[in-house]
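Obj: model holo form, ligand = 2-oxoglutaric acid.
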Amino acid sequence: MAPTPVSSIKIGHIDDIQELRKTQPMAVPDRYVRGMSERPTQLDSAPQSSSMHVPIIDLSKLVGGNENQSHTELSKLSAACEEWGFFQVVNHGIDLGLLEIIEKLAMEFFALPLEEKQKYPMAPGTVQGYGHAFVFSEDQKLDWCNMLALGVEPYYIRNPKLWPTEPVHFSETLETYSRNIRELCQNLLRFIAMSLRLKQDMFNEMFGVAVQAVRMNYYPPCSRPDLVLGLSPHSDGSALTVLQQGKGNSVGLQILKDNTWVPIQVVPNALVINIGDTMEVLTNGKYKSVEHRAVTHKENDRLSIVTFYAPSYDIELGPLPELVDEKQPCKYRRYNHGEYSRHYITNKLQGKKTLEFAKIQNNISS
Ligand SMILES: O=C(O)CCC(=O)C(=O)O
Ligand SMILES: [Fe+2]
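Output (holo structure tokens):
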């Protein structure tokens, strides 16, 4: 989240989905009904075979395993980043009690009366606070979702007025949670560098004081999950994203693999990690920032707590020379990361479109 743009955007009236559900549980306003090509066909169906499961990486084998184990896990990690752009990490070292508490507090926040949540309003065209991000016009289709998004690090991106004082302990728990997730990201970046045969601190040193933001997405049930999307298809602008799915969640996250939407199963105590656009650029497309979306459920609600981890805004980025050669010519130009972040947050979520910002045009192997 780059510094927020000043805007005079007109987005029209937006229903708060939770309130709508209370008064008209069966209603699906037109602004939420997707065109035929966007409607989800597979909802929470199980993947056809185990080869359709996102790889599971055991971090304890990378951190403390014997040479054989860590070598195997590192190969799994590199295959996951290349072929899936997603993996789930288990034994990640974060206290499971803390994951439970943040989930409980997030659920309590969304359960507050609307007037309380509206004390932290997300202004149109901005991405922090409670509301709908990435809405720029009155005719844009909307996501079946309520969100609370907050800039966390560095401190200057925070808007302290938007940090909830209810439920009590929300803000301090988010602080502890974010510190833990930051360490996890730094750890993962070390292993990702190793998997690319780069110096292990390459990314952590390059990123400077990394930017970290959190988005809590709450998807109420929907009487017509076949007509709406919880979250529009997009890739993340981050380097890495860490996504915590609510414990009892039904399946809702789907990723686009070989032109098919593949659901991500809820693995107890695991965190879902995905490669964002920034890492795709740095690796010259070797590691993929994969398009994903969220679908809703007829009876169940769903929560995701998502952390975006990215380089400091002031750094200049482009494909690493180590990953550019005759076979893999340079696919992306160099640019300032802050500029890319601004571009990302001032455009609606639309598949991988935002990455076109960085693509070198007339690229033969895009
Ligand atoms: O809720 C989910 O599973 C997807 C969330 C997501 O992709 C995001 O917040 O960027
Ligand atoms: Fe995402």
